[in-house]
Fold this sequence. Notes:
- The chain is an alpha+beta fold.
- It has a single domain, classed as Roll (Nuclear Transport Factor 2, Chain: A).
- Helices cover 32% and strands 44% of the residues.
- It is built from five helices and eight strands.
- The protein has helices at 2-13, 20-28, 44-57, 127-133, 140-143; strands at 31-37, 40-42, 58-71, 74-85, 89-91, 94-96, 102-114, 117-125.
- A hairpin with a 2-residue loop joins β1 (31-37) and β2.
- The longest helix is centred in the middle third of the chain and has 14 residues, at 44-57.
- The mean pLDDT is 96.
Amino acid sequence: MTNLISNLMRLWSQPLPTDDDAAEAAFRQLYTDPVTINGAKTTAVDLVVRARALQGAFEGLAHELVDRVEAPGKIVIGFYLRGRHTGPYPTPLGIVAPTGLPIEVRTTDILTVTDGLVSDVWVVSEELGLLTQLGAVALASAVG
């Protein structure tokens, strides 16, 4: 399953094919369609939109795998995602304009693998830390 992890990281960090059908096919080689992410059914079309948003907001994306635990049908990975914020980044708080700042996000993925494809993902990502790095959030006492 080491190849699966490498392929997943490459898919999210390297530019996708410009053709939507080819990009969706790339996700279908690694994920079921739909795949369940944090309890929500997510299609290959949705994954392409997410990956393009990530890759459009950050350049030089790279993953550093910190730890991996495998069991039959399960993989848990802890990793850092690093890059530079060079494009608009959509967040639940609104769009963060490009800052040019480097980013480092700690993430844990719990993957269920069915017939060689990721069928379920629980993602725990350090969103608040990322928003803080980008200057998008601060303590109220620091602002006022």
